[in-house]
Amino acid sequence: MHTADIITQRLTDAFQPQSVKVVDESDLHIGHAGWREGGQTHYRVYIVSDAFKGKTRVERHRMINAALAQELAGSVHALAIHASAPGEGGL
Hints:
3 helices
């Protein structure tokens, strides 16, 4: 299973999002810190969930980082997060 699929599944399990999109941007970081042959190191996440209602941007990021703690401690070097509640914009 690709890391993007694992990230998608973990976020789906944790937040039951209305929408979630995980983009592997590793190819944009070739030669940069954390990049490894084969990629799967740098990701951008777009997620819309009721779980983010009333939460600050920092709180949302912390929630996502906690849900992805295993991946962030392992194979994922960088994660850009775009988290919103329904009606705020996003996907």
